[in-house]
Design brief:
The chain contains 2 helices and 6 strands, in the order βββαββαβ. The protein is of the alpha+beta class.
């Protein structure tokens, strides 16, 4: 099983980690443009985790969120 995968949106890495719960964690470095995109993709499909500065996307939405991220960037991992 893949534990994490990176996609690149405008050359900025977006990490997707698969969690044991079935949920996924979405992380990216500080970048206003990418934050706007990722917030739009994840909002109402998960919750923001301020401790880790990432989104936790609930398992029932993970395929939609991953497909949305994939459609906006490239996969290099």
């Amino acid at each position: 099983m893949v534990l994490s995968k990176y996609y690149y949106i405008n050359n900025v890495p977006v990490q997707i980690r698969y969690l044991p719960s079935g949920d996924i964690a979405i992380w990216h470095p500080c970048n206003q443009e990418i934050a706007y995109i990722i917030d739009g993709v994840c909002r109402n499909r998960g919750r923001w985790n301020s401790h880790y500065n990432n989104w936790i996307v609930f398992s029932q939405f993970k395929h939609k969120v991953i497909n949305d991220i994939k459609s906006r960037g490239s996969n290099n991992g």
